[in-house]
Design a protein that fits this description.
The protein is mainly α and 451 residues long.
Length: 451
């Protein structure tokens, strides 16, 4: 009897998939804004595509992918510059590209459809916030079609799309991190002013010390594992440059003029940016195509290929796992975020609508909790920009799951290119410049509001 009631309850929620977000929330979730629920469901679609991509690079699943048409044409294995790559291992790489192509195409399609939607009164807003079952069918249809794309130069061309998209998504991550760091410091300093100042300042000191200690340890480990006394000049230069840039950013953050213009600026934000910059540096060095300067190179070649030293290689390593976790957290933050800084909201096109700021809980009606339309007077976020963020996220997860390796269709090998190294390093430099701009902008442009 309990099972029957459970099935009936599940069917009642499934039937709402054809309707809107308010319908989805009837008796299933606490009252919430329509805009928030829609973003979370779209993010769920992205996570679902990511999960399928991860499953496709599991060794047991990869071995069955050769049954799909157009896959694994040619020899079984070839000797590449980083080791011996089995054709069945290469299939997982191709499958991830096609799955992420499907999710990217899905979000790009909705980015085009939702251009210039101003409020929920626009008929296209109903498409954004409803018809989930049909959206799911569209995603499945695009995915099936993607697996029938002929090999040709598809994987190689889509690699460069992934590189460019990943660069911009890393910048979005950096913007969100800078915003988070400033908000964190402001909240704790505000709490210190209101009471128990010693406790809050001690907490700030402890976290700042931890971040800098981890950053220092990271620098030492990078020098130990990714450099050699008689070589690896490029790695030494990249690590040293980013270390110097981080020191400069930390010093600038506590200059008297910066403190006068921004009293909440300090070493906490600089320590967070420093740690993330070194994390990006680590990801970049893990793609250096030199075995002597990159100890993880052979371990990053394929799932079942055999390296030159007879070691079984694999996709997953520490940089990939940490990058995946950061991706998940960042994407969730994009879905539910509401910055404390109006400048960030304008830059990220997530300015809150008047309906959001009206107060109260319109989602509670006669004791029933449901999603409510909070966008009648104006959208709570830019629909097109949100889908572009998910489009870029699809490209970023594609590159992360394949370790930024470039496929060579002619020889069926996977190569780690310098392109991946420079994209990651340049994104870390762009992030540091953006952080420095948030510090000096109030001084250089005193007539503008940067609070």
């Amino acid at each position: 009897m309990g099972a029957c009631l459970g099935v009936c309850s599940l069917l009642s929620c499934v039937s709402c998939l054809c309707g809107s977000a308010p319908c989805l929330l009837c008796g299933c979730c606490p009252s919430s804004r329509n805009s928030t629920i829609s973003r979370l469901i779209f993010t769920f679609f992205l996570f679902l595509g990511t999960l399928v991509s991860i499953i496709m690079i599991i060794p047991g699943v990869e071995e069955q992918l050769h049954k799909l048409p157009g896959f694994c044409e040619g020899g079984s294995s070839t000797l590449g510059i980083q080791g011996r790559v089995n054709c069945k291992s290469f299939l997982g790489h191709k499958s991830v590209y096609r799955m992420c192509f499907a999710t990217a195409a899905f979000f790009f399609l909705f980015a085009l459809i939702m251009i210039c939607v101003r409020s929920s009164k626009d008929p296209r807003a109903a498409i954004q916030n409803g018809f989930w079952f049909f959206k799911f069918l569209i995603l499945i249809g695009i995915t099936v079609g993607a697996f029938y794309i002929p090999d040709g130069s598809f994987t190689t061309v889509w690699f460069y799309f992934g590189v460019v998209g990943s660069f911009f998504f890393i910048l979005i991550q950096l913007i969100l991190l800078i915003d988070f760091a400033h908000s964190w410091s402001q909240i704790w300093l505000r709490n210190a002013d209101e009471g128990n100042a010693k406790g809050w300042y001690a907490a700030l000191f402890i976290f700042t010390f931890i971040f800098y200690a981890v950053s220092l340890a990271a620098v030492v480990l990078l020098y130990v594992y990714y450099t050699r006394p008689d070589g690896c000049t490029e790695n030494k230069v990249l690590i040293s440059l980013n270390l110097i840039f981080c020191i400069i950013a930390s010093v600038v953050s506590i200059l008297p003029k910066i403190q006068d213009a921004q009293p909440h600026s300090g070493l906490l934000q600089a320590s967070i940016i420093t740690l993330y910059t070194l994390f990006i540096t680590w990801l970049a060095l893990a793609n250096v195509p030199d075995k002597d300067c990159n100890p993880t190179l052979l371990v990053r070649n394929s799932t079942t290929g055999i390296g030159a030293d007879g070691q079984v290689t694999q996709w997953w390593d520490a940089p990939s796992i940490v990058g995946l976790v950061v991706f998940l957290l960042c994407t969730l933050f994009i879905s539910i975020r509401s910055s404390d800084h109006s400048q960030v909201n304008k830059m990220m096109l997530t300015e809150e609508s008047p309906a959001m700021l009206s107060g109260g809980d319109p989602g509670v009606e006669d004791g029933a909790r449901r999603a409510y339309d909070n966008e009648q007077d104006g959208v709570a976020y830019n629909y097109t920009f949100f889908h572009i963020c998910l489009f870029l996220a699809s490209l970023y997860i594609m590159m992360t799951l394949t370790n930024w390796y470039r496929p060579d269709e002619g020889s069926q090998t996977l190569m780690s290119p310098w392109t991946a190294v420079w994209v990651k390093i340049s994104s870390s430099w762009a992030g540091l410049l953006l952080y420095l701009w948030t510090l000096v902008a109030p001084i250089l442009l005193p007539g503008r509001e940067f609070s």
